[in-house]
């Protein structure tokens, strides 16, 4: 993969981490709001039940979003590791090919016969 794709993966990971922090902040604020509401007098019991139910639904939705964001982050980190591994492997292969080509060129320039597979094995 190219460095552009690698940068794209890095940006996606950063975006997911930022979204995760934002979601954690929202959950914290919702918990604080809930604690404040629990301490206040509510005129109608039905109002309090509705508010708590709505709050619980929001928290569940945020937890689901956070779970998905973590899964996306793990997936992107795995892809990033694979890209880095492939990139390293490609660099090693390129180096080996370059070295072999250099050695072959030196052998030819020196007027020596090129080794064959049978001479290398035996």
Please outline the helices and strands:
Blueprint: H1 3-39, H2 45-109, H3 117-121
Helix pairs in contact: 1-2
Global shape: rod-shaped
Succession of helices and strands: HHH
Which percent band covers the strand fraction?
under 5%
Tally of contiguous helical segments: 3
Arithmetic mean of pLDDT: 75
- Terminal-residue CA separation: 39 Å
Biggest sheet details:
none
Overall number of strands: 0
Low-confidence stretches: 41-46, 117-122
What structural class do helix, strand and pairing data support? Answer: mainly alpha
| Count of structural domains | 1
Share of helix, binned = over 70%
- Rg, rounded, reads 30 Å
List its salient traits.
122 residues, mainly alpha, disordered C terminus
Question: How would you characterize the overall build of this protein?
Answer:
The chain has 122 residues and is mostly helical. It has one domain (3-121). Helices cover 88% and strands 0% of the residues. The chain is built from three helices and no strands. It has helices spanning 3-39, 45-109, 117-121. Helix 1 packs antiparallel against helix 2. The longest helix is centred in the middle third of the chain and has 65 residues, at 45-109. The radius of gyration is 30 Å and the shape is rod-shaped. The relative contact order is 0.10.
